[in-house]
Please model this.
Amino acid sequence: MKIYLNKDANLENIKEILNKHNIYFELQLGDNTPIVVVDDLYLRDIKCYLNQSDISKVSPIYDLKYVLRLNKNDDTIIDIKGHKIGGGNTLLIAGPCAVEEKESMKSIALAVKKSGADVLRGGAFKPRTNPYSYQGLNEEGLKILSEAGEYANLPVISEITDLRYLDSFIKYVDIIQVGARNMQNFALLEELGNIDKPILLKRGFNNTIEELLCSAEYIMKNGNQQVILCERGIRTPLSYTRNTLDLSAVAVLKELTHLPIIVDPSHSTGKRKLVIPMAKAALTVGADGLIIEASINPNFASSDAEQTIDIEDLKQLRKL
Ligand code: PEP
Ligand code: MN
Model:
């Protein structure tokens, strides 16, 4: 972040304050006015510590208008059919990786509801690495998910993979999920910015925190301010887990943005046993919610069975 100071700002005093608070900074001279460069993490601290009359402009490294806490201090609270997220409200999303057939999906929905979760998840269009892996029930899956949600009185979320299906998503789901593989599908993001529905934006597994914020800005700049961010693990050389859950990203994002942030301990670990411990850790660092793959018979799930927890384990989460 660059802090442009006024010509007559008391530089010595500013240096003293930054040093006192252990804030690492660099000084630059731009057009005769000093510029203090500090990490974006200190956005809020700087606003408190420095004398506002010394500052002419604060510019984050990425000049984003909507997404940054710098421009809107209060947490964004999003209401999904009466279930709130953000500003101290925690949202628990749970359900199978892929939507199951109708009767089974209705039973899962009821069990998810009884476990205390707020939103039912289920993928209808599955983005699979191998083109011969199970691809989901597509349009029919969205209908089943919607019916199951209504049956159990739960709002529903599903992942959109292509703009061609947007009308069906608007009709059948309450939150539209943009998956890790589409985080930088800018045409898709722009279009989701024109609709009035909450969007769950997952961080791509090779993307930085700044890139995630830029992608959220693509949605918000077109009008839709209902964006929930999701940390779902990134690619690292570590291979024991499916991905590496970057929990520090949650703490950083809480500083940089007013948007709610949820964590996906299922896709980040890829292992059933790790889901509850990492869910606890996520809430401890300040996550506003969780998205969990859960089902009645996890071993028979049509995709991601190995990371899907059962309903008994899911019930533990509401007690956290
Ligand atoms: C999912 O949530 O079903 C999914 C595919 O997740 P991700 O985009 O994080 O891989
Ligand atoms: Mn999955």
